[in-house]
Design the sequence.
């Protein structure tokens, strides 16, 4: 163990970057890649071009934000309402980055470097980093994280372009089956990572709220169902916790 | 509704739409996280409410894809879509929460329906 630790101390910055790059073969990264196959299918369904789909992957990166943006594009939502819905869904980036910073920051890491690296934070890279960061010497952590997270984004950006174009040759049914990867991936991964009852309730309330929201306010159904369902889930979970506490 | 919505009549508008509707409202939160790392309490009630609404928003998108899809997804009948989602979730739970097992089971339902539909 000590000799292994010593070896790790000896590894160069480039060696740590490479080790990060190798992380794209880890289970969370592979599952995410599966989801991006589905995302490419979804983009095709939404009627945007492959260049737009790849551009969106590179500049937004967080998959839930992209799915919401795509939903807004399909529904014909206006830009301010779309941006507002995406902002609400991406709010969770702040606490995630806040939780990651004490682990990522080394004694000499500059703020511009951290700002650059923060762009690549999304659920998968975050889970990967939080699990493995302890084994990396502090001054090499930015290199290790960058090697993993930047590679993951670049590979999936290219993947979206390739899969999008290959799908032109697939029958509609196969495209539909690929696009269906996305809802199943999100339902299962969000349910699995929910910390407590409020996260699970939010999943079911958000889904249940969509049909009435679709009927009440077409074009804004995502916002209405998300905020409405989220509030119901939040207060519902509080009531459940209060009752459990009282018993 | 049509003004300020997505359209590709102007070649640059989709990219502006993606930047202002996707990049800006996502990266601003990431940058805020870097700059305020010492000042935000991740365990506060406000952070919990934000997490819950963010989850419900994604859930609404899941429901939109299952209940009101467009394109090739719409060619799969609604009961089959619902059954596939339910099968995926059940398999995920029964397999001690393996996402890939869930995805595979949902795709099996769609594949099974396709075989039956093709043979009729």
Sequence:
């Amino acid at each position: 163990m000590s000799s292994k630790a010593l070896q790790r101390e000896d590894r160069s910055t480039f060696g740590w970057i490479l080790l990060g790059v190798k992380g794209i073969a880890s289970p969370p990264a592979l599952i995410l890649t599966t989801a991006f196959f589905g995302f490419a299918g979804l983009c095709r369904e939404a009627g945007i071009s492959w260049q737009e789909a790849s551009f969106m992957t590179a500049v937004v990166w967080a998959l839930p934000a992209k799915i919401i943006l795509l939903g807004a594009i399909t529904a014909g939502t206006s830009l301010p309402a779309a941006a507002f819905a995406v902002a609400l869904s991406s709010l969770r980036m702040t606490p995630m980055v806040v939780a990651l910073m004490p682990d990522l920051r080394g004694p000499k890491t500059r703020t511009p470097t951290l700002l650059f690296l923060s762009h690549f934070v999304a659920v998968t890279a975050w889970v990967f980093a939080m699990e493995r960061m302890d084994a990396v010497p502090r001054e090499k952590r930015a290199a290790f994280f960058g090697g993993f997270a930047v590679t993951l984004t670049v590979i999936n950006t290219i993947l979206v372009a390739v899969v999008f174009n290959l799908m032109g040759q697939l029958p509609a049914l196969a495209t539909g089956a690929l696009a269906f990867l996305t809802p199943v991936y999100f339902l299962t991964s969000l349910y699995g990572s929910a910390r407590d009852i409020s996260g699970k309730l939010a999943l079911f309330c958000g889904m249940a709220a969509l049909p009435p929201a679709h009927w009440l306010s077409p074009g804004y159904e995502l916002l209405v169902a998300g905020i409405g369902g989220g509030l119901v889930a939040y207060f519902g979970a509080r009531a459940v916790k209060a009752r459990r506490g009282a018993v | 509704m049509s003004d300020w919505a997505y359209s590709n009549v102007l070649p640059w508008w989709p990219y502006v739409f993606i930047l202002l509707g996707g990049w800006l409202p996502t990266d601003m939160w990431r940058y805020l996280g870097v700059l305020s790392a010492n000042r935000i309490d991740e365990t506060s009630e406000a952070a919990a409410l934000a997490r819950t609404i963010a989850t419900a928003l994604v859930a609404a998108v899941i429901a939109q894809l299952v209940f009101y899809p467009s394109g090739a997804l719409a060619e799969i009948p609604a009961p089959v879509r619902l059954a596939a989602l339910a099968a995926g979730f059940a398999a995920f739970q029964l397999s001690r929460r393996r996402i890939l097992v869930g995805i595979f089971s949902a795709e099996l339902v769609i594949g099974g329906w396709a075989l039956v539909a093709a043979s009729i």
Q: What stands out?
A: The two ends of chain A are 48 Å apart (CA to CA). The mean pLDDT of chain A is 88. Residues 65 and 87 of chain A are 8 Å apart (CA to CA). DSSP finds 14 helices and no strands in chain A.
